[in-house]
Write a structure and sequence with these properties.
There is one protein chain. With 364 residues, this protein is α+β, with helices and mostly antiparallel strands. The protein folds into 3 domains: 14-86 and 93-181; 206-255, SH3 type barrels; 259-343, Alpha-Beta Plaits, CATH 3.30.70.100. It is 58% helix and 16% strand. It contains 10 helices and 10 strands. It has helices at residues 2-10, 18-52, 57-85, 95-129, 136-163, 169-185, 187-202, 242-246, 273-289, 323-343; strands spanning 12-13, 16-17, 210-213, 216-223, 227-231, 237-241, 250-252, 259-267, 293-305, 310-318. The strands form 3 sheets. The chain has a 5-stranded antiparallel sheet. Strands 8-10-9 form a 3-stranded antiparallel sheet. α3 (57-85) packs antiparallel against α4.
Length: 364
Protein backbone atom coordinates (compact mmCIF):
# COMPACT_ATOMS: atom_id res chain seq x y z
CA UNK A 1 0.00 0.00 0.00
CA UNK A 2 2.82 2.35 0.90
CA UNK A 3 4.63 1.43 -2.31
CA UNK A 4 1.52 2.20 -4.34
CA UNK A 5 1.17 5.55 -2.58
CA UNK A 6 4.83 6.33 -3.27
CA UNK A 7 4.32 5.47 -6.91
CA UNK A 8 1.34 7.80 -7.06
CA UNK A 9 3.43 10.49 -5.41
CA UNK A 10 6.21 10.02 -7.94
CA UNK A 11 3.86 9.90 -10.93
CA UNK A 12 3.48 13.50 -12.09
CA UNK A 13 0.88 15.08 -14.34
CA UNK A 14 1.45 18.79 -15.10
CA UNK A 15 3.91 18.76 -12.20
CA UNK A 16 1.13 17.63 -9.87
CA UNK A 17 1.37 14.21 -8.18
CA UNK A 18 -1.22 11.65 -9.21
CA UNK A 19 -2.22 11.28 -5.56
CA UNK A 20 -3.46 14.85 -5.57
CA UNK A 21 -5.39 14.23 -8.75
CA UNK A 22 -7.09 11.25 -7.12
CA UNK A 23 -7.87 13.28 -3.96
CA UNK A 24 -9.30 16.06 -6.13
CA UNK A 25 -11.48 13.60 -8.04
CA UNK A 26 -12.67 12.14 -4.75
CA UNK A 27 -13.65 15.61 -3.48
CA UNK A 28 -15.54 16.29 -6.70
CA UNK A 29 -17.37 12.98 -6.34
CA UNK A 30 -18.23 13.76 -2.71
CA UNK A 31 -19.43 17.21 -3.78
CA UNK A 32 -21.79 15.82 -6.43
CA UNK A 33 -23.14 13.12 -4.13
CA UNK A 34 -23.33 15.53 -1.21
CA UNK A 35 -25.43 17.99 -3.21
CA UNK A 36 -27.97 15.31 -4.04
CA UNK A 37 -27.98 14.21 -0.41
CA UNK A 38 -28.54 17.77 0.81
CA UNK A 39 -31.43 18.31 -1.62
CA UNK A 40 -33.04 15.06 -0.45
CA UNK A 41 -32.50 16.12 3.18
CA UNK A 42 -34.19 19.45 2.59
CA UNK A 43 -37.12 17.73 0.91
CA UNK A 44 -37.48 15.25 3.81
CA UNK A 45 -37.27 18.03 6.39
CA UNK A 46 -39.90 20.07 4.54
CA UNK A 47 -42.33 17.13 4.54
CA UNK A 48 -41.66 16.32 8.20
CA UNK A 49 -42.00 19.90 9.40
CA UNK A 50 -45.11 20.49 7.29
CA UNK A 51 -46.75 17.50 8.97
CA UNK A 52 -45.83 18.63 12.49
CA UNK A 53 -46.35 22.40 12.38
CA UNK A 54 -49.27 24.56 11.29
CA UNK A 55 -47.12 27.52 10.27
CA UNK A 56 -45.55 27.78 6.81
CA UNK A 57 -42.67 29.99 7.94
CA UNK A 58 -40.28 27.06 8.57
CA UNK A 59 -41.15 25.62 5.15
CA UNK A 60 -40.40 29.00 3.58
CA UNK A 61 -36.97 29.01 5.24
CA UNK A 62 -36.16 25.53 3.95
CA UNK A 63 -37.42 26.32 0.46
CA UNK A 64 -35.38 29.53 0.33
CA UNK A 65 -32.20 27.75 1.49
CA UNK A 66 -32.51 24.60 -0.66
CA UNK A 67 -31.02 25.74 -3.98
CA UNK A 68 -28.47 28.19 -2.51
CA UNK A 69 -27.21 25.41 -0.21
CA UNK A 70 -26.64 23.16 -3.23
CA UNK A 71 -24.70 25.82 -5.10
CA UNK A 72 -22.74 26.72 -1.97
CA UNK A 73 -21.64 23.08 -1.72
CA UNK A 74 -20.56 23.20 -5.39
CA UNK A 75 -18.51 26.33 -4.73
CA UNK A 76 -16.85 24.94 -1.62
CA UNK A 77 -16.15 21.65 -3.39
CA UNK A 78 -14.46 23.36 -6.33
CA UNK A 79 -12.37 25.51 -4.00
CA UNK A 80 -11.34 22.46 -1.99
CA UNK A 81 -10.47 20.61 -5.20
CA UNK A 82 -8.23 23.42 -6.42
CA UNK A 83 -6.54 23.76 -3.04
CA UNK A 84 -5.87 20.02 -2.89
CA UNK A 85 -4.33 20.13 -6.37
CA UNK A 86 -2.32 23.20 -5.38
CA UNK A 87 -0.64 23.54 -8.79
CA UNK A 88 2.74 25.24 -9.00
CA UNK A 89 2.67 28.97 -9.51
CA UNK A 90 4.50 28.70 -12.83
CA UNK A 91 1.73 26.42 -14.20
CA UNK A 92 -1.37 27.91 -12.57
CA UNK A 93 -0.46 31.21 -10.88
CA UNK A 94 -4.03 32.21 -10.14
CA UNK A 95 -4.76 30.60 -6.74
CA UNK A 96 -5.21 34.00 -5.09
CA UNK A 97 -7.73 34.88 -7.78
CA UNK A 98 -9.53 31.57 -7.17
CA UNK A 99 -9.86 32.41 -3.48
CA UNK A 100 -11.22 35.84 -4.33
CA UNK A 101 -13.73 34.41 -6.80
CA UNK A 102 -14.77 31.89 -4.16
CA UNK A 103 -15.47 34.65 -1.66
CA UNK A 104 -17.46 36.58 -4.25
CA UNK A 105 -19.50 33.51 -5.17
CA UNK A 106 -20.17 32.80 -1.50
CA UNK A 107 -21.39 36.37 -0.94
CA UNK A 108 -23.53 36.15 -4.07
CA UNK A 109 -25.10 32.88 -2.88
CA UNK A 110 -25.81 34.45 0.53
CA UNK A 111 -27.50 37.42 -1.17
CA UNK A 112 -29.48 34.99 -3.36
CA UNK A 113 -30.66 33.15 -0.25
CA UNK A 114 -31.83 36.43 1.34
CA UNK A 115 -33.59 37.37 -1.92
CA UNK A 116 -35.46 34.06 -1.99
CA UNK A 117 -36.26 34.32 1.72
CA UNK A 118 -37.72 37.82 1.30
CA UNK A 119 -39.80 36.60 -1.64
CA UNK A 120 -41.12 33.68 0.38
CA UNK A 121 -42.06 35.87 3.34
CA UNK A 122 -43.69 38.37 0.97
CA UNK A 123 -45.87 35.61 -0.51
CA UNK A 124 -46.80 34.40 2.99
CA UNK A 125 -47.74 37.82 4.33
CA UNK A 126 -49.54 38.74 1.09
CA UNK A 127 -51.78 35.72 1.62
CA UNK A 128 -52.41 36.82 5.20
CA UNK A 129 -53.12 40.38 4.02
CA UNK A 130 -55.79 39.16 1.59
CA UNK A 131 -57.69 37.75 4.58
CA UNK A 132 -57.98 41.20 6.22
CA UNK A 133 -60.56 43.91 5.51
CA UNK A 134 -57.99 46.57 4.72
CA UNK A 135 -56.46 46.79 1.24
CA UNK A 136 -53.53 48.90 2.38
CA UNK A 137 -51.59 45.92 3.75
CA UNK A 138 -52.06 44.21 0.35
CA UNK A 139 -50.03 47.08 -1.13
CA UNK A 140 -47.65 47.53 1.78
CA UNK A 141 -46.30 43.96 1.76
CA UNK A 142 -44.97 44.12 -1.85
CA UNK A 143 -43.58 47.61 -1.16
CA UNK A 144 -41.63 46.42 1.89
CA UNK A 145 -40.47 43.29 0.03
CA UNK A 146 -39.13 45.34 -2.90
CA UNK A 147 -37.39 47.72 -0.50
CA UNK A 148 -35.69 44.84 1.32
CA UNK A 149 -34.63 43.23 -1.96
CA UNK A 150 -33.10 46.49 -3.20
CA UNK A 151 -31.30 46.91 0.12
CA UNK A 152 -29.99 43.33 -0.14
CA UNK A 153 -28.65 43.88 -3.67
CA UNK A 154 -26.99 47.19 -2.77
CA UNK A 155 -25.38 45.69 0.34
CA UNK A 156 -24.14 42.65 -1.63
CA UNK A 157 -22.64 44.86 -4.35
CA UNK A 158 -20.85 47.03 -1.78
CA UNK A 159 -19.45 44.03 0.12
CA UNK A 160 -18.31 42.37 -3.11
CA UNK A 161 -16.68 45.62 -4.24
CA UNK A 162 -14.83 45.83 -0.92
CA UNK A 163 -13.60 42.23 -1.36
CA UNK A 164 -12.34 43.17 -4.82
CA UNK A 165 -10.17 45.83 -3.22
CA UNK A 166 -12.22 48.91 -3.98
CA UNK A 167 -12.73 51.54 -1.31
CA UNK A 168 -16.40 51.94 -0.57
CA UNK A 169 -16.04 54.65 2.06
CA UNK A 170 -16.30 57.34 -0.62
CA UNK A 171 -19.35 55.64 -2.12
CA UNK A 172 -21.04 55.42 1.28
CA UNK A 173 -20.26 59.08 1.97
CA UNK A 174 -21.73 60.03 -1.42
CA UNK A 175 -24.80 57.94 -0.73
CA UNK A 176 -25.18 59.66 2.64
CA UNK A 177 -25.02 63.13 1.13
CA UNK A 178 -27.27 62.10 -1.75
CA UNK A 179 -29.67 60.47 0.68
CA UNK A 180 -29.97 63.68 2.66
CA UNK A 181 -30.67 65.63 -0.52
CA UNK A 182 -33.26 63.12 -1.67
CA UNK A 183 -34.87 63.06 1.77
CA UNK A 184 -35.14 66.86 1.78
CA UNK A 185 -36.64 66.89 -1.71
CA UNK A 186 -39.04 64.04 -1.02
CA UNK A 187 -39.97 64.82 2.58
CA UNK A 188 -43.65 65.19 1.66
CA UNK A 189 -43.63 61.81 -0.08
CA UNK A 190 -41.88 60.20 2.88
CA UNK A 191 -44.42 61.79 5.24
CA UNK A 192 -47.23 60.35 3.12
CA UNK A 193 -45.66 56.88 3.20
CA UNK A 194 -45.43 57.02 6.98
CA UNK A 195 -49.01 58.28 7.02
CA UNK A 196 -49.99 55.19 5.04
CA UNK A 197 -48.25 52.99 7.58
CA UNK A 198 -50.08 54.72 10.44
CA UNK A 199 -53.41 54.22 8.66
CA UNK A 200 -52.52 50.54 8.25
CA UNK A 201 -51.62 50.18 11.93
CA UNK A 202 -54.58 52.12 13.35
CA UNK A 203 -57.12 50.87 10.77
CA UNK A 204 -59.51 53.84 11.14
CA UNK A 205 -61.27 52.83 7.92
CA UNK A 206 -61.22 50.38 5.02
CA UNK A 207 -62.03 50.57 1.34
CA UNK A 208 -65.77 51.03 0.90
CA UNK A 209 -66.29 52.85 4.21
CA UNK A 210 -68.22 56.11 4.38
CA UNK A 211 -66.07 58.54 6.34
CA UNK A 212 -65.98 62.18 7.40
CA UNK A 213 -62.57 63.80 7.77
CA UNK A 214 -62.33 67.55 8.02
CA UNK A 215 -63.98 69.06 4.95
CA UNK A 216 -64.03 65.70 3.19
CA UNK A 217 -66.94 63.26 3.25
CA UNK A 218 -67.57 60.27 1.05
CA UNK A 219 -66.76 56.63 0.36
CA UNK A 220 -63.14 55.43 0.39
CA UNK A 221 -62.27 54.01 -3.03
CA UNK A 222 -58.52 53.46 -2.79
CA UNK A 223 -55.78 53.70 -0.16
CA UNK A 224 -52.40 54.31 -1.78
CA UNK A 225 -48.92 55.04 -0.48
CA UNK A 226 -49.20 58.75 -1.17
CA UNK A 227 -52.90 59.52 -0.88
CA UNK A 228 -56.37 58.14 -0.22
CA UNK A 229 -59.12 58.54 -2.80
CA UNK A 230 -62.56 59.48 -1.51
CA UNK A 231 -65.65 59.49 -3.75
CA UNK A 232 -67.92 62.27 -2.52
CA UNK A 233 -71.70 62.10 -2.69
CA UNK A 234 -71.54 64.66 -5.53
CA UNK A 235 -69.58 61.91 -7.37
CA UNK A 236 -66.38 63.95 -7.40
CA UNK A 237 -63.07 62.24 -6.56
CA UNK A 238 -60.95 63.76 -3.80
CA UNK A 239 -57.32 62.74 -3.26
CA UNK A 240 -56.32 63.39 0.35
CA UNK A 241 -52.59 63.09 1.24
CA UNK A 242 -52.10 60.35 3.79
CA UNK A 243 -49.89 62.56 5.97
CA UNK A 244 -52.82 64.97 6.28
CA UNK A 245 -55.40 62.22 6.73
CA UNK A 246 -53.36 60.50 9.46
CA UNK A 247 -53.56 63.68 11.57
CA UNK A 248 -57.29 64.29 11.07
CA UNK A 249 -60.18 63.34 13.28
CA UNK A 250 -61.88 60.63 11.21
CA UNK A 251 -65.55 59.81 11.70
CA UNK A 252 -66.16 56.36 10.22
CA UNK A 253 -69.90 56.35 9.56
CA UNK A 254 -69.94 52.72 8.42
CA UNK A 255 -68.22 51.56 11.63
CA UNK A 256 -71.57 51.79 13.40
CA UNK A 257 -73.73 48.70 13.68
CA UNK A 258 -77.05 50.62 13.39
CA UNK A 259 -78.47 53.97 12.22
CA UNK A 260 -80.19 56.54 14.36
CA UNK A 261 -83.62 57.95 13.52
CA UNK A 262 -84.55 61.15 15.28
CA UNK A 263 -87.72 63.09 14.44
CA UNK A 264 -90.70 65.04 15.79
CA UNK A 265 -94.42 64.71 15.07
CA UNK A 266 -96.56 67.81 15.57
CA UNK A 267 -100.26 67.40 16.39
CA UNK A 268 -102.83 70.15 16.43
CA UNK A 269 -103.81 71.88 19.65
CA UNK A 270 -107.32 70.43 19.57
CA UNK A 271 -105.79 67.03 20.48
CA UNK A 272 -107.18 65.82 23.80
CA UNK A 273 -104.98 64.31 26.54
CA UNK A 274 -106.57 60.92 25.97
CA UNK A 275 -105.86 61.06 22.24
CA UNK A 276 -102.26 62.08 22.95
CA UNK A 277 -101.83 59.11 25.30
CA UNK A 278 -103.28 56.72 22.71
CA UNK A 279 -101.02 58.16 20.03
CA UNK A 280 -97.91 57.70 22.17
CA UNK A 281 -98.86 54.14 23.10
CA UNK A 282 -99.67 53.30 19.49
CA UNK A 283 -96.32 54.64 18.23
CA UNK A 284 -94.48 52.67 20.94
CA UNK A 285 -96.32 49.54 19.79
CA UNK A 286 -95.33 50.20 16.18
CA UNK A 287 -91.65 50.46 17.15
CA UNK A 288 -91.81 47.35 19.34
CA UNK A 289 -93.35 45.16 16.63
CA UNK A 290 -91.36 46.34 13.60
CA UNK A 291 -88.60 43.84 12.81
CA UNK A 292 -86.36 46.52 11.32
CA UNK A 293 -86.21 48.57 14.54
CA UNK A 294 -83.40 47.91 17.02
CA UNK A 295 -85.05 47.16 20.36
CA UNK A 296 -82.34 48.01 22.90
CA UNK A 297 -83.17 51.69 23.10
CA UNK A 298 -86.07 53.80 21.84
CA UNK A 299 -88.03 56.82 23.05
CA UNK A 300 -91.50 58.16 22.29
CA UNK A 301 -92.31 61.22 24.44
CA UNK A 302 -94.71 64.16 24.38
CA UNK A 303 -92.04 66.74 25.13
CA UNK A 304 -93.06 70.19 23.97
CA UNK A 305 -95.87 72.70 23.55
CA UNK A 306 -94.61 74.30 20.38
CA UNK A 307 -95.92 77.49 18.79
CA UNK A 308 -98.20 75.71 16.37
CA UNK A 309 -98.27 72.08 17.57
CA UNK A 310 -98.12 69.57 20.36
CA UNK A 311 -94.76 67.86 19.73
CA UNK A 312 -94.07 64.13 20.08
CA UNK A 313 -90.35 63.27 20.08
CA UNK A 314 -89.24 59.98 18.47
CA UNK A 315 -85.75 58.53 18.96
CA UNK A 316 -84.87 55.01 17.79
CA UNK A 317 -82.42 53.03 15.66
CA UNK A 318 -82.74 50.86 12.60
CA UNK A 319 -81.30 47.38 13.06
CA UNK A 320 -79.37 47.62 9.77
CA UNK A 321 -76.68 50.17 8.93
CA UNK A 322 -77.37 49.80 5.20
CA UNK A 323 -78.67 53.11 3.91
CA UNK A 324 -81.39 51.67 1.67
CA UNK A 325 -82.66 49.34 4.42
CA UNK A 326 -82.56 52.22 6.91
CA UNK A 327 -84.71 54.35 4.61
CA UNK A 328 -87.11 51.45 4.11
CA UNK A 329 -87.53 51.04 7.88
CA UNK A 330 -88.08 54.75 8.30
CA UNK A 331 -90.68 54.80 5.53
CA UNK A 332 -92.61 51.82 6.91
CA UNK A 333 -92.67 53.27 10.43
CA UNK A 334 -93.84 56.64 9.12
CA UNK A 335 -96.62 55.04 7.10
CA UNK A 336 -97.84 53.06 10.13
CA UNK A 337 -97.80 56.24 12.23
CA UNK A 338 -99.91 58.01 9.61
CA UNK A 339 -102.47 55.17 9.66
CA UNK A 340 -102.50 55.24 13.46
CA UNK A 341 -103.11 58.99 13.69
CA UNK A 342 -105.79 58.75 11.01
CA UNK A 343 -107.59 56.03 13.01
CA UNK A 344 -107.45 58.28 16.10
CA UNK A 345 -108.84 61.19 14.04
CA UNK A 346 -105.78 63.31 14.80
CA UNK A 347 -104.40 65.93 12.47
CA UNK A 348 -100.82 66.93 11.79
CA UNK A 349 -100.13 70.50 12.76
CA UNK A 350 -98.56 73.02 10.45
CA UNK A 351 -97.51 76.60 11.16
CA UNK A 352 -100.67 78.66 11.63
CA UNK A 353 -101.47 82.11 12.88
CA UNK A 354 -104.79 83.35 14.22
CA UNK A 355 -105.60 86.97 13.42
CA UNK A 356 -108.29 88.68 15.51
CA UNK A 357 -110.02 91.60 13.74
CA UNK A 358 -111.75 94.18 15.85
CA UNK A 359 -114.28 96.42 14.17
CA UNK A 360 -115.19 99.72 15.75
CA UNK A 361 -118.91 100.59 15.93
CA UNK A 362 -120.13 103.88 14.39
CA UNK A 363 -120.19 106.70 16.84
CA UNK A 364 -117.94 104.94 19.33
Amino acid sequence: MSETWQQLQSLMLLDIPASRWLAALFILFVTLVGRQWILALFDRLARTIAARTASNLDNLLLEAAERPAGWLLYTLGLLATLHVLNPPADIFPLMSLVDQVGRILTLGIAAWFLWRLIGGFAAYFSERARQTDSALDDQLVPFVAKTLKIFTVITAVLVIAQNLGYSISGVIASLGIGGIAVAMAARDTIANVFGSIMILVDRPFAIGDWIKAGDFEGVVEEIGFRSTRIRTFEQTLVNVPNSLLANMVIDNIDARSKRRIKMRIGLTYDTSPKQMQLAIEGIEKILETHKGVEQNFKLVKFDEFADSSLSIFLYYFSASKNWAEYLQVRQEVNMQIMHLLESLELDFAFPTRTVHLERSLPGS
